Amino acid sequence: MEVWQKYGGGQQAKQPWPMENEPRAETAFITADMSQDRKHLYGGVSEAYWVSSQGVAVRVEEQTPLFLSVPDTDGDRTADELCLAARHDPPFAAALGSPLTLTYFLCSADDVKQVHEATFTKFFELPAGVPDSRMMRDPIWSTWVKYHVDVNDSRVLDIARAVAEHGFNNSQVEIDDNWETCYGEAVFNPERFPDPQGMVDQLHSEGFRVTLWVHPFINSDCPAFTYADEHGFLAKDSSGTTQFIHWWNSDQAGLLDFTNAEAAAWWIQRLVDLQQQTGIDSFKFDAGESAWLPDNYTLEADKRFWPSIYSVKFIETVTQFGPIIEARVGRGTQRHGAFLRMLDKDSTWSNDNGLKSLIPTLLHFGLLGYPFVLPDMIGGNGQPSKQLFVRWAQASAFMPALQFSLLPWEYDDEVTELCQEVTRLHSQYTPLLLSLAEETTTSVAPMIRPTWWLCPTLSECLTADQQFLVGDDLLVVPVVEFNTGNSLDVVLPPGQWKQEGTELVDTGPKTFTLYNITLDTLVYFTRLED
Fold first, then answer.
1. Which one from 174, 281, 289, 465 is the annotated catalytic residue?
2. Mean pLDDT of the chain
3. What is the value of pTM for the model shown?
């Protein structure tokens, strides 16, 4: 039986490209924190939209209570079918008297690229604008991986000074987990940050902008919980009783209901007040997936769109803070044009949420209309080896943004120099990235494109999952596995291509292997004019 290569749908920890590489059991198709259950949950950037190598596109209407499976029917570890089902089962809610329908559209064209170009804007909007150019040019420096919850003002200042001392640029320093008096209180902990305005002023004077990690949860022991509960601002059941939820920093918390306009306005105002009091420039918005809603919930929105409307309203709220934000959820919200962060990666070479999942996730975001991808922390969220850290940095060099948390100079001078080269190269190509970013406001072409964008009928292009195009004229083939043989496979699209840094010029389509790959090797090709 002929296998159609399919792309789109849900974000996954083992992000497949194409998707038949990862069969999936049936699950409710909603935005979720897939790190909570990698086998059954999809991630925050998920759309009921798929395209295939046979030139067929599928779009399921948003009000469909969709359950999705991608089964392996013959035991060969390859998915054979895309199965859609509609049921009025949790987490979906049925409006009184509403019929149960599975509504979908089928569109066709000659190949996968043509059907995507012809179909996408019939169902989704293009970005109305682009994010902050400095975020696209210079690295973000986060406290998260280095300090986790042990963050304070002196450590933030130390990171900033070390960045400057080692000759790196910055777009901002990002203060992550545990800066608050209580999770959800939106007030600096005075023991950790006795003078937040003074700290921010100091960072501004040193050329850093400052952003804060923010989430939609309020722990039950916070004073803000009592206020939000009394005013009906938290997710509740049909009787109006606030429902407790569990998240990674509490077993008992409330979830702000962003479908409640008064709740969203109160939440926004607290952050605006915080900016005015301290000078904070912007925010990293975490979570926002609809799966965080409690089992028994009600929303102030059309019941046909529960629960996914929660993620829509979350993004509509947080994007009011302008172009310097980042978030991690997207569901019919392409028009807002914000940086979307990949969910926390593991510090491994694996395709199971490690380095080999980076490029497939990048391509997945772009295909679904979210071109402004922030590939999370270089090196992942653990303690990567020297080689893994360098290869991760190199793989990120041509992506829309860079983010460090582990500090290169804490390895050795070689790592520092190689990471400086990554940031120099990224800055060199930022004009191209900014031009492609503007292009996404008028074209369905992603900034970062799959190889098949230039060869949509060739099988080797359709399955190339560890390389990518930046526009149509730059092909990037990073090393993404522990390579004892010092070799690298390349799928060259049609045209004449020059490997930068060498005299090699070759003509595609062609598949070949490069040898003598060393730690300082970053392979990329520029397409020459015919």
1. 289
2. 96
3. 0.97
